[in-house]
Design brief:
This protein has about 200 residues and is mainly alpha-helical. The chain is built from 7 helices and 2 strands, in the order H-H-H-H-E-E-H-H-H.
Length: about 200
Amino acid sequence: MAPALASVYAAWTDHLDGLEPERLGRPSRASAWTVKELLFHQLLDARRALVAAATPATTAPDVDHVSYWRPFRPDLRDGGAGHARFVVAGAGPYSDELLVEEWRETSAAAVRAMSHPAVAVVSTQGHALTIESFRSTLVVEATVHLLDAHGTPPADALQHTVEVLARLRGRPLPADDADEVLRATGRLPSGEPDYPLLG
């Protein structure tokens, strides 16, 4: 998973480098956020990776790379509305240039930390995961949100995301492309009765 994480974080950076400045203020596919706000959310994930890489769990793993995602559904609790508001407030004070630069530095540091972690089982968001399972969650998150930002995920990250979504579903997805990931996560309409698999 370390190579897939490196490639999808690099793809995020490449995508940002290719955007005209005004594009950061445009809507993303994540309905609550602009691309800039989505980038701030993704920056929080990279920061969390840095913390987790140096935070050994005190218990055995209680979730894996699939079961970790089961609570992340838009029909549960507030559907993520509280976090969505926090991200909007947090992204606001940043200039576009500063936010992109902080992403560039933090994501590169997270990739290095995740490539040579100090611990085998990490603690994050109230769970204990093996380092490989945690890397997988970072890849899935970055892949889905790169699609939200109208970017193109690398093939290894996209394939892994499709595999995780299929495991969540309990059977293969109808297709294995980016549009199917968008359908499976509720970004595009679908006739599949069990979609969205996660929010």
